[in-house]
Amino acid sequence: AGGALAGTDALLPRARDAAERSGDAWAASRLTVQLGTMHAGGPDPAGGLDLIDRAAAQAEKAGDVGGLIHALGIGAVLACAINRTNRGRAYLAALERHDLTGYLHGYLVAQARAMEAGMSGRHAEAVATIEASLADSPPAPRTGLLLMLGSQATFLGDAALADRAVVLLPPPHERGLWDPAVAGLMASQALLHGDREGLVRGARAAHR
Question: Which pTM was predicted?
């Protein structure tokens, strides 16, 4: 797995550079978003967000509104996830200047808005934002939103909300990369119900 990841680390910059040299702004912007996402989740979070800004600028210069919205949406989620809340708010403010009606990745905007609201202590707003976006989200992103809903349930001490998040989970084969994190949601649900054995079981599964 390490070799495959190292290969991806080397391949992405080369692919992005090739797209830029050929003048393919559409591909360059999206590859830069992928590269920024990798950096933001690793040892260089600030550098990752700088790459997201570069992708947004590339898309905007090319008149690629879809690419711009995609970069801003990813940037908002990443910034909030790595505790750069003010930068996340800036991405969200930039998103608000665009018509997001029919945007295929609207769940990204919902994730970012909910994360910013939750990190700012506006938990009821975070819950409402998540729940409003569930029906239109594909299964894998919906799983991510439901995990966020479980986190808000823990903050609020709301066992019924955690139960609802668990009930609404897609089947395991539809959860994508979010599936391993579901154990954490189950642990939170057990905690809120005072189920010590379930809490230990979920916590162990989450850290395998």
Answer: 0.80
